């Protein structure tokens, strides 16, 4: 417990601004002087240490709402050997007075969330991904020129630092968006997957070194990619998936229109599914600025 007398004693002698900052630190669980386990326990929260917010307080005003979501149909490109979405009509205006369908679908079809549980046995399933992390400033990394020449292009840590040189340090709780131009290929499954003569896949993603940099050196909520995977198509052992989701982070794959986002200054809203026990699921993603 944080004894009120401890806080009162600490506040004595501070000016009002310092006192407010100190009080905020206590609420965030980072400055409790009476508990030895403050920072560690703050992650899950208790009566003494409520969970820390996933992102700093911010206001959002938008003139533009950009849809970062592909329309999902049975023709949308999916991983090899998966069944496409099956949409079965269940009721019609003529017969029932209303319209509805039934879907049979894998969780990783179309523009979709990967919850930490997708690659981590102890990771959060989709319904447990913190809502506050799903509204995030967008850091957009443009690798379109490189991806035109090299389908295996992987975002490097140097490219992330080059973005910071132009736009400043990545905001806390941001989402880093891969803009490779790959969304333009979504109408052609072979082009989107980059399937070669031997059946291997080729499309851009993040390098493991870039993901390590974002995980260890910056405060990033999630990754967005306009390809089928946060790993490159050639990375068949999924090092970025294992690292990123294993660290409790989320990602969204197969986003559309990343090339229409400004490189900095937009906010992404990830309408992640809230299905019990889900490893992910089709997601509506919006960009606001
Ligand atoms: Zn996925």
| Percent strand | 15-25%
The average pLDDT value, as a whole number, equals 87
If classified by CATH, what would the architecture of the largest domain be? 3-Layer(bba) Sandwich
| Structural class by sheet pairing and helices | alpha/beta
* Count of discrete alpha- or pi-helical segments spanning 4 or more residues: 9
Rg estimate, integer Å: 22 Å
* CATH C-level name of the largest domain: Alpha Beta
Shape: globular
Oligomer: single chain
- Secondary-structure element series: HHHEEHEEEHEHEHEHEHEEEE
Percent range of helical residues: 10-25%
Please tally the β strands and state the result. Answer: 13
For the termini, the CA-CA separation is 42 Å
Bound molecules: zinc ion
What name does CATH use for the topology of the largest domain? Glucose Oxidase, domain 1
Question: Descriptors for this entry?
Answer:
single chain, 289 residues, alpha/beta, Glucose Oxidase, domain 1, 2 domains, 9-stranded mixed sheet, 13 strands, 20% strand, globular, disordered N terminus, binds zinc ion
Overview of this protein structure:
With 289 residues, the chain is an alpha/beta fold. It folds into 2 domains: 4-42, no CATH class; 65-288, Glucose Oxidase, domain 1, CATH 3.50.30. Helices cover 24% and strands 20% of the residues. It contains 9 helices and 13 strands. It has helices at residues 4-11, 16-27, 38-42, 93-96, 144-149, 157-167, 189-193, 208-217, 239-246, and strands at 65-67, 86-91, 100-104, 112-114, 135-142, 154-155, 174-179, 205-206, 220-225, 250-253, 267-271, 280-282, 284-288. The strands form 3 sheets. Strands 1-13-11-5-7-9-10-4-12 form a 9-stranded mixed sheet. A two-stranded antiparallel ribbon has the order 2-3. Strand 9, helix 9 and strand 10 form a beta-alpha-beta unit. The two termini are 42 Å apart. It binds zinc ion.
């Amino acid at each position: 417990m944080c004894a009120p007398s401890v806080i009162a004693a600490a506040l004595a002698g501070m000016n009002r601004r310092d006192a407010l900052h100190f009080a905020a630190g206590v609420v965030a669980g980072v400055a409790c002087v009476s508990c030895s386990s403050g920072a560690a326990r703050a992650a899950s929260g208790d009566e003494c240490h409520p969970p820390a917010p996933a992102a700093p307080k911010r206001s959002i005003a938008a003139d533009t709402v950009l849809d970062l979501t592909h329309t999902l149909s049975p023709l949308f490109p999916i991983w090899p050997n998966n069944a496409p979405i099956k949409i079965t009509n269940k009721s019609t205006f003529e017969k029932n007075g209303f319209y509805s369908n039934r879907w049979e679908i894998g969780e990783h079809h179309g523009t979709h969330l990967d919850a930490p549980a997708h690659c981590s046995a102890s990771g959060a399933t989709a319904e447990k991904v913190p809502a506050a992390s799903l509204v995030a400033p967008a850091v957009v990394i443009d690798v379109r020129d490189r991806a035109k020449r090299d389908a295996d292009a992987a975002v490097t840590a140097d490219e992330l630092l080059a973005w910071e040189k132009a736009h400043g340090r990545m905001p806390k709780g941001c989402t880093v968006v891969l803009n490779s131009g790959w969304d333009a290929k979504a109408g052609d499954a072979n082009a989107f997957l980059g399937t070669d003569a031997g059946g291997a896949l080729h499309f851009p993603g993040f390098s493991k070194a870039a993901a390590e940099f974002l995980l260890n050196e910056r405060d990033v909520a999630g990754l967005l990619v306009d390809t089928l995977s946060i790993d490159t198509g050639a990375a068949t052992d999924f090092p970025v998936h294992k690292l990123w989701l294993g660290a409790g982070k989320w990602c969204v794959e197969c986003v559309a229109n990343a090339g229409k986002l400004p490189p900095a200054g937009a906010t992404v809203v990830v309408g992640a599914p809230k299905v019990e026990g889900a490893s992910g699921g089709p997601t509506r993603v919006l960009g606001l600025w």
